Amino acid sequence: GNSVTQMEGPVTLSEEAFLTINCTYTATGYxxxxxxxxxxxxxxxLLLKATKADDKGSNKGFEATxxxxxxxxxxxxxxxxxxxxxxxxxxxxGVSGNTPLVxxxxxxxxxxx
Amino acid sequence: ETGVTQSPTHLxxxxxxxxxxxxxxxxxxxxxxxxQQALGQGPQFIFQYYREEENGRGNFPPRFSGLxxxxxxxxxxxxxxxxxxxxxxxxxxSPTRNNEKLFFGSGTQLSVL
Lengths: 113, 113
Description:
A: 50% strand, B: 7-stranded mixed β-sheet
């Protein structure tokens, strides 16, 4: 079945450092790929998405590129801020029109000033 | 602002009891999904309702059941609570059945003692 594996946290960075959170997936065909963010005490918010190979999703300085050859969708940001501290979830939705999201376990990011 | 509201925000129950969690979908959304997020894990799909009918279910036992009402609000019912049911329960609504866009509520934190 479909699955998502993302790097274990927690990740602690200093402000303005470069961020990479690795995500790889297992799925048949070309699933849609997502990054969600969960701030403390809140639900999940869509951060970015990509629906086909080589697509780049971007939002709020975050980027991720859909790599079919490596089945990866790594999240990157060039300069993190304290306000980026949250839990980040990689997710996929299978190719069938009605399939639910499959999430990774999440990576907690803490950014210190 | 997502517009998806869940109640209650926190709940404590004892093993064997029954619980009902509620979700008010964002206006105009006819699809609602429920996810269980255990501590330190990613959300796991429970089931989905589209126009008052269940149209997808994850790997959860029958004691997890749901309803969607004509106004598209929804309930999640769990019977015979077990300690492992302790988790954050997330509701997500979508304007389309294929979940192209999902909007999550802040969740209900259930503790089973």
